[in-house]
Amino acid sequence: MCPTIRHGAWKGAWRGLTGSEIIMLKNIPTKSVVTILAIGVLVGFAIVGSFDAFVDYTSSNEFCGTTCHEMDTVTQEYMESPLYKNNHGFRVGCADCHVPKPLFAKLWRKAKATKELYHKVMGSIDTPEKFEAKRLILARSEWQRLRESDSRECRNCHFYEAMTIETQPNTARFWHPMAMDEGYTCIDCHKGFVHRLPDLAGEIQKAAEHFEAVLAADALSEDRLYIARAAALYSGVSTEDGTIAELEPGTPLTVLERRDGWFKVRIQGRQYQTDNHTLYDIGERMVVLARAQGGSIQIGENVTRNDATGLDWRPARMEGWVSRNNVTSQIASLWDYGKAIYQNECVRCHVLFSPSDFWATEWKNKLHNMRRKAGLSAGQTEILLKYLQHHAKPQGMI
């Protein structure tokens, strides 16, 4: 009889067994039980060890860089970066940035990566041309992953607590304290450090071409139109007539008359205290619609005080003629263009704030400070500013 059967801890186990089953268990030698358990443990270790070795291998630079020719482009970029070779003699591997260290996060990352087998079979990025066409999508996916994990892989090596902020370059000395206070994450600012950035300027160009196509196809049959690009307001139906105002992109127009490719329009807005040369939007945001020359703004008498800002406003309007080449009935297409400029230009250097994070007046100051760093034309900068201002936080709201 197996001596362990006599122990009280096993008595309850016998009650549910038949006589033949009890006899069979009694006949199993103790050594056999130990052997089976030992084999089970060894097999378990072998499975776990093999799986761990497999995970480690699929996280190695060798696997990442040489298994698939689709990775040739980014591998070459990595090998030319400071993370691969530098005067300090350290090297950061592919997995250090792209594979989480916590077990469950790592396994989930590996599971999600199995979809790449499908794209391998389908040849989604099996040529340099296909890869470049998908580079922006791939980059945004990885940026989003890092953002959602609060740049976990970056923080394996970099710690705010270990930084000597006062000795950092000017830009870092400004942004790192702000990032700590506001909860920004590493990838918000640090893009394109190892792998080449996507063709963001090309994305802006595509958006510009689409916007121009919308303008060309616009019948302009509506009585409600908008300024599509900065334009002059004339006193008559010719550029030889005197200019009475400069109109900003997004300014709403009410059409009063049409003549030979020109529109006589009215711009309804408000006038701010003693500023008799600027027409502002009627809404809750201080957005400039037009800058008038002379006394072309017709100003009403009623004064309204804005409780949020403490400013006094009077209703105002102006009338004049604009060329059909500078207007659109599709205001959404103008804002789509402005959004494309914002998402593909400002993302190069820092976090993308929501337009509603700041007042319209704050956006004006921010773009003024950043314009020398941006590779935008004057027209693109104006459209970007108006997109942000028209979607900004209401003036005075905390």
UniProtKB/TrEMBL annotation:
Heme 4 binds at residues 186, 189-190. InterPro entries: Cytochrome_c-type_ET, DUF1058, Membr-bd_4haem_cyt_TorC, Multihaem_cyt_sf, NapC/NirT_cyt_c_N, NapC/NirT_cytc_sf. Its main location: membrane. SUPFAM superfamilies: Multiheme cytochromes. The chain crosses the membrane at residues 33-55. It is found in: Cell inner membrane. It comes from the Bacteria. Binds 5 heme groups per subunit. One of its GO terms (molecular function) is heme binding. It comes from Candidatus Kentrum sp. FW. Heme 3 binds at residues 154, 157-158. GO terms for biological process: anaerobic respiration. GO terms for cellular component: Gram-negative-bacterium-type cell wall; plasma membrane. Residues 31-199 form the NapC/NirT cytochrome c N-terminal domain. Keywords: Cell inner membrane, Cell membrane, Electron transport, Heme, Iron, Membrane, Metal-binding, Transmembrane, Transmembrane helix, Transport. Heme 2 binds at residues 94, 97-98. Belongs to the TorC/TorY family. This is Cytochrome c-type protein. Heme 5 binds at residues 346, 349-350. The lineage of its organism: Bacteria, Pseudomonadati, Pseudomonadota, Gammaproteobacteria, Candidatus Kentrum. Heme 1 binds at residues 64, 68-69.
